[in-house]
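Run: sequence + zinc ion -> complex structure.
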Amino acid sequence: MNISTVVQRLKSIRIRRIKKGYCPCCERKTLFVAIGYWLRDDYRCIRCRSIPRQRALMKVLKERVPDYNKVNIHESSPSGVLFNKFKGNENYTFSYYWKDRPLGTVVEETGACNQNLENMTFEDEKFDVFITQDVLEHIYNPVAAFCEIGRVLKQGGIHIFTVPLYPFIKTRPRIKIEAGGEIKEIIPAIYHGDPINSKGCLVTWDWGGDIAEYIYQASGMRTEIIEFPNNKENFRNGLEGDFLYVCVSSK
Ligand SMILES: [Zn+2]
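>> structure
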C-alpha cells in the first residue's frame, strides 16, 4: 500500500489532523494522525503510536546526550513507546514502587527494581540520566523526590522529564496528608492511567510556572523548561499540542 492510499483511507475516518514527518521516537519517516482534538494524547505516529510529549522527550534526550545508549539511564515508572525503545539497552534500568514489597529488590515478573522515588536505595551519583514521564504529578513529597533524584545523579548528570505544566499558575498540592497518614483532598481528585495499577494513579500536585524555582530549592539543580514553538522543524517531528514542554534539571 503506498502512502497516498494510506492517506485516502485515513481521511475516510474522522481525522482531525494528518501530517507527514519524521518521528524522533521510531526514527522513521511517518504520518502523524490525530483522531481527537486533544493533541497531547491524540496526535500519534502511525508507526510507533508515540504521542507528542514522548517525541519531545526523545528529541531533547538525543540533543543533550547523543550517546544516550552508552550512559547509565534510570527511569522511574516507565510505560509506553520510549520504554519499549529503551528496555533492551544494557545501561537502562527502571523501577516502579510497590508498597508491599522490599525496597531495592528486583520484582521478577517485571524486571523492574522496587524503588520509592522519595527514598531510593541507590548509592549516590550512580546515573548519568534520570527520566520521569508524567510521574511527578503523582508524588506525595516532591521535595524529597527532587532531592533524591539529585543525589543519585552523577555530577553533570541530568534529570529529563515531562509533567503536565500550567505556566500561569503557582505550583500547588491537590492533597494534604493528615497526622494519621490519611489523604485529604484539597482539590477534587483526578486520576491518570497507571502501568501497575488498573485503578489509576491519584494526581497529587499541579505544577506551575515556578517549577524551576521549586526544584532549585529542593535539590540545588538548575532547570530549563524547553518549549516547542510552532515552526517547520517541530511540525515535521509531530511536536504540536497543548502543555508540550520538556524539563531538564542539571546537577
Ligand atoms: Zn514513531
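>> summary
The mean pLDDT is 91. The first strand starts at residue 17 and ends at 23.
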